[in-house]
Amino acid sequence: MKNFLFLLFLIVIYCGCSQKADISKINGLNGYWQITKAVNTDGDKKDYPINEVYDYFEIKNKIGFHKKVTWQPDGTFLVNDLSESVKIIDKSEGVFIEFTSKFGKHMEEIKTISEAELVLETSDKSKLYFSKVVLNTNK
């Protein structure tokens, strides 16, 4: 009986830890995101309570682009010509964003995606937490 309970415990832990992001929610990635914190593998946390620079994603059919944009006091964004191509890759072990620019290529795993939250895991297993920015379009 103890062996059965221990095995059941391991299965629950494994299934809870290895759950991959829901690919059907990938269109929720479109829009503006603000980083709120970063946590490295040692558990060290850096909070970002205020940001002027946001991440903007535009994805269609798992392909699109990512830009850094700077918020302006009048509610607009300052945009430059730098962007990264992005491709969503659905693998058995997870859902990944492949970023490609003239400076290089890297991948980050989408650990969580919802209407309000995005969590990405970098190649060194650090986690980046973002909240969706809701823009006030009533001027």
- Radius of gyration, in Å, reads 18 Å
The helix/strand class is: mainly beta
Largest sheet: 8 strands, antiparallel, barrel
Mean pLDDT over the full residue set:
87
Distance between the termini: 66 Å
| Structural shape | globular
Number of strands: 10
| Strand/helix succession | HEEEEEEEEEE
Instruction: Give the helix level as a range of percent.
Output: 10-25%
Give the spatial strand order of the biggest sheet. 1-3-4-6-7-8-9-10
**Number of helical regions:** 1
User: What percentage of amino acids are in beta strands?
Assistant: over 45%
Uncertain parts: 4-16
Question: How would you describe this structure to a colleague?
Answer:
About 9% of the residues have low confidence. This protein is globular. It has an eight-stranded antiparallel barrel with strand order 1-3-4-6-7-8-9-10. It starts with a helix and ends in a 7-residue tail after the last strand. The chain contains one helix and ten strands, in the order αββββββββββ. A hairpin with a 2-residue loop joins β7 and β8. With 139 residues, the protein is mainly β. Helices cover 12% and strands 50% of the residues.
